[in-house]
Amino acid sequence: xxxxxxxxxxxxxxxxxxxxxxxxxxxxxxxxxxxxxxxxxxxxxxxxxxxxxxxxxxxxxxxxxxxxxxxxxxxxxxxxxxxxxxxxxxxxxxxxxxxxxxxxxxxxxxxxxxxxxxxxxxxxxxxxxxxxxxxxxxxxxxxxxxxxxxxxxxxxxxxxxxxxxxxxxxxxxxxxxxxxxxxxxxxxxxxxxxxxxxxxxxxxxxxxxxxxxxxxxxxxxxxxxxxxxxxxxxxxxxxxxxxxxxxxxxxxxxxxxxxxxxxxxxxxxxxxxxxxxxxxxxxxxxxxxxxxxxxxxxxxxxxxxxxxxxxxxxxxxxxxxxxxxxxxxxxxxxxxxxxxxxxxxxxxxxxxxxxxxxxxxxxxxxxxxxxxxxxxxxxxxxxxxxxxxxxxxxxxxxxxxxxxxxxxxxxxxxxxx
Length: 417
Fold this sequence. Notes:
Layout: E1 19-25, E2 31-37, E3 45-50, E4 56-62, E5 64-69, E6 73-77, E7 83-89, E8 94-95, E9 100-103, E10 116-118, E11 124-127, E12 135-138, E13 144-146, E14 154-159, E15 165-170, E16 173-178, E17 183-186, E18 192-198, E19 204-211, E20 214-221, E21 229-232, E22 238-243, E23 249-254, E24 261-265, E25 274-276, E26 283-288, E27 294-299, E28 306-311, E29 319-320, E30 327-331, E31 337-342, E32 345-352, E33 359-368, E34 380-382, E35 389-392, E36 401-404, H1 407-415
Antiparallel strand pairs: 1-2, 2-3, 3-4, 5-6, 6-7, 7-8, 7-9, 10-11, 11-36, 12-13, 12-35, 14-15, 15-16, 16-17, 18-19, 19-20, 20-21, 22-23, 23-24, 24-25, 26-27, 27-28, 28-29, 30-31, 31-32, 32-33, 34-35
């Protein structure tokens, strides 16, 4: 059953620390490596605790997810997905020399987890990180026109209700691209921010945020005139959110293991009711219909991802829309078409929503594209004026798990030891 828990470190809030994460005990048992978090992931520092003296050394190395490698090396990840290595004296708990980049493009998960593991024999396994791709406009035949922006790790673009702006997540922050002015402006400056969506009037942007001081759903003025304010929750697993067209309901996905779509009454509804909208499988990636009567979502309840529709905000029946796979649903502006992605193919399902349940009339493949497909989220959006889509090219995304045998030999060579 184990013994009593003992606090090893204390977060120094006076020094700006927000949390201590990702501990790893050194093989000799004399120390613990861990990450000290501040307001931003880019500010995180590597620290080592002596289990013999209780002393803590915050190293002059910015990063997350530290690992000790046999032979005397410390490796850790930076916010941009670069893994670096530096010689490390396990007995004195000190680094020896300068850090050198050893792997590029390793995944950094929500909360700053480095998606890399190292075996004692020096082999490694890691998840490939986010590739650099373009943000483009596309017609319904797949003819694309890149926006005048530098390639980057764009995520979940969303048109404003008027179609004149696009909110998009880039490098942990929410940005707004103005199609008329052709400018890209940041709307968040703290924490890790994802999954933007617009209020029906286009005046606010909703987002999910993970930071050292908490996590949950936030909103920010679309013009950037004020800082984001927290709306709901303190769960680090709250992902996407969307406000219903009438402003009465806020839908969001939340669950640490199997995401489920839940809805909570928005303040204008005069209540705090919270209700689970779906019950089985993992549900992630959803869209509320323009009339607010339906919600489409992706689920793996049959063993593979498919697109379903149920009534909103009170669920009644779950109609499967896709066949042989589907994810990332999005409604057309008139609510008569439900778009979704099957592998690299965009499908348009013509639907009848006039009855008590949605029925599918037909499904038409539109075009193939190198869609970004990460986290089950929708990395494209439908132009509210009916003029095509905004799409994110996956760039170098592979979703691959990379294994490197005897990687420690390469590490020694890189570090000159």
